[in-house]
Amino acid sequence: MASRRDFLNQQAPENYVAGLGRGATGFTTRSDLGPAREGPTPEQIQEALAKRAQQLGAAPPTAYGAPDKKKEDEHDDDDERFQDPENEVGLFAYGTYDRDDDEADRIYQDVDEKMDRRRKMRRLVSPNPVPHPSCPFGKTNGLSFPSFEVQIADLNLLDTHREAREKLEREEYERNNPKIQQQFADLKRSLATVSDGDWANIPEVGDLTGKNRRAKQNLRQRFYAVPDSVIAGARDATQFETSIQDDGTQTNGSSKDQADGTMTNFAEIGAARDKVLRVKLDQAAQGTSTDAGTGIATNIDPKGYLTSLSQTELKAGEVEIGDIKRVRALLESVIKTNPKHAPGWIAIARLEEIAGKIVSARKFIAQGCEQCPKSEDAWLENIRLNDNHNAKIIAANAIKNNDRSTRLWIEAMKLEADARAKKRVLRQAIDHIPQSVAIWKEAVNLEEDPADARLLLAKATDIIPLSVELWLALARLETPEKAQAVLNKARKAVPTSHEIWVAAARLQEQMGNDKINVMKRAVQALAKESAMLKREEWIAEAEKCEEEGAILTCGAIIRENLGWTLDEDDDRVKIWMDDAKQSIGHGKYETARAMYAYALRVFPTKKDIWLAAADLEQNHGTKEALWQLLEKAVEACPQSETLWMQFAKEKWQAGEIDSARRILAQAFKQNIDNENIFLAAAKLETDAKQIEAARQVLSTAREEAGTDRIWIKSVAFERQYGTNERALDLVNQGLQIYPKAAKLWMMKGQIYESQGQVPQARQTYSTGLRACPKSVPLRLLAARLEERSGVIVKARSILDQGRLAVPKNAELWTESVRVERRANNIAQAKVLMAKALQDVPNSGLLWSENIWNLESRTQRKPRSLEAIKKVDNDPILFVTVARIFWGERKLDKAMSWFEKAIVLDSALGDTWGWYYKFLLQHGTEEKREDVIAKCVVSAPRHGEVWQSVAKDPQNADLGTEEVLKLVVAKLE
User: Fold this and answer.
1) What does DSSP assign to residue 143?
2) CB 424 within 8 A of CB 413
3) What are the C-alpha distances in Å from 153 to residues 147, 148, 149, 157, 323?
4) 829-886 pLDDT, tens digit each
5) How far, in Å, are 63, 452, 456, 464 from residue 459 at the CA level?
6) Cα–Cα distance for residue pair 253/890, rounded to 1 Å
7) Coiled-coil ranges per the record (predicted)?
């Protein structure tokens, strides 16, 4: 059995026209097929359908077989706007009709005919009845009606008139609203006269959207399958490993060795990436003046845009050819439309230069100079694009057209290679433009002999007396005596210039005058001329003088102008201290020193100003200057114990113990019964190893001052040197005077513990808790004593009572959890931790205890993320996160989190201990030394482990570095 052909290979039906069902018409312009052909007529279509129905053995379609009612209305359905959208024509008109379809068509046709008859019957009744003599119905009220035959005749006549009227209206509408096919009918007919050569020469329509270009680029791209060896090599190139090599070395955290033995340095790669990103961010930030924050340019300077083209170095290979052509077309349109517009010529010349067509660029800019002979920019661009010989000729022509252009004269001077030729050009320029300061400056710079330069400047100041630059340049070339006369002339010529007054002050400083009084006269003269600068501008001038080495002038400017426009009602102290801090931030320490000196003259008894000035000298000055300042400070503020103690401390640190003693003795006279001075004196004697003297100072302090702090320091002093009996006696005396001093109870209990007297220690803690029920450290000591004694129930009871007395305390909750954990009661510890986090949800100490001791290793990081969301910037939590990264060997992240914790609270000693312990394993020697130095400067005082080590009597003589190392050994 032969297989049936597929649809595309079957023979087309007779009279088949492709696309006819969707309304397409046969229209072609190809010369090989001949002129366009019209589609089949409706009669041909009807005949084809009838023939097809006969072949299928079915009756002809009724809708097409019925006679047409209106032969003359052949064009009713031509216009698609008047067609019925539900009429099945076109694609649906070629289907096979069955009996149901034929019956439906017959019914619709009957309905249409019936509706037509009804419309005709409505016209039978005339709207204006007229009398008729042959009316068969007789007369009625004098009116008669026409007969039925007459009415039918009249109806046919009306129908004919109506159809004629509708046809006229339709023709009028089609004439006023022609279809597109009718509009171009004449053009289509004229296509018959087009020859084959004209058809072939018709250009293709340009693609303005770039679609064709992108398609061609996509076609040129080729894709190849990557070999497995390349994929494997890329995988191995970035693989990390920690293994022992054959030679015994260890590779840790670096890429595998390559074939040539080199190794990938990821630190350099990361640094390069950061550098590129930094450059891009700087470029984006500098891309606009109005929106520097976002880095997006929001305005375009038309002049600056053309100027910036010369600063951009581009190569033709870096710019697409299509872009160059497009821009060239636009710029050619610009210069043709407005040939007198010089920037257009400059732009197209630079475009040709970028494209590598230097000859074309010179041609365009030459035309631009001809069209715009008065444009300086066009001539300068022409000079730049030509070599030296041609450039001289162009410069001469440019000057002929613009003989008063300073820029052209200077450019012509630069083209000369000989100094004499340069001077000759500038001499001619001065003849043409004697008022140009720039040309005079260039002429002076060419003179090698100072005498000739002075003569030129003298002539220049006579011609241009208002130029401050020329006056100052002349003064710099003269001797000090003549320079003073020059500045006096300049001051008379330009009385509103502050630069001349500043130059006069610097001249006095140069002449060795320590007292500069010029600035006082300057303020008066400038105020009289209403040319006084703002206070901030005077500070900037002072900083400029300091930068150039004029220290005395800097101080004189600050002394005379720092209080300008400030009244007594203003907060002058705060304003001046802020100004000094800004100058310190700029690195201008002499300016800040002058500001503090001026502020202290106005407010000599302000302790804050003295402390700020002392801090400046301590960080950026000398010891002698600091001592002198502190000596003046204690004389001005004798009641300030802080200044006395700082003065004594500076002397003591310099090794002058006797001077420190004398200072403290003077402080005693000025501040009787001051505990801080007593304690400072006791510490001084202790550090000097004068034990008896220190003991005597503390005894005197207990008698004269007698504060609880002095009693505590006295007990700590005795414990430090092992005299526990004396310490116990002192603590008992102190508790009789200060029974509410929790530290005395704690020290008494610790003394008993060190002697092994546990019952006495327990009794002491119990009595102390009754006297100080809200003392958390005392309660923790009592609970730990009971835990060490094995009485866990008693420890729990003490902590529970503490949580009732001091609610929402993280330390008590943490100790309760630790007691259960150390007793191996993990379930109860987790229950307590859940309650604690509900009671104190923002405690970093609780979260750290939970993460590190109650969570599995896999859950630590998710739990730490949850903690960071709930706790805002807690250094203890940050240390815990750093330890997690440390355990995962993510060393960079661990170091980053340690440093974040230190920045948050540098006084927390445990953070320094953990960081130093980390660096002992993974840091360099320089980094460890840097951390120790910073720790000594910060002098930490807090932390669980740090306090337990630092407050141990055996470690009382240790410095910060020794304590740090002991803390590292104790951390777990």
Assistant:
1) B
2) no
3) 10, 9, 6, 6, 80
4) 999 999 999 999 999 999 999 999 999 888 888 898 899 888 888 999 999 999 999 9
5) 112, 11, 5, 9
6) 10
7) 516-548
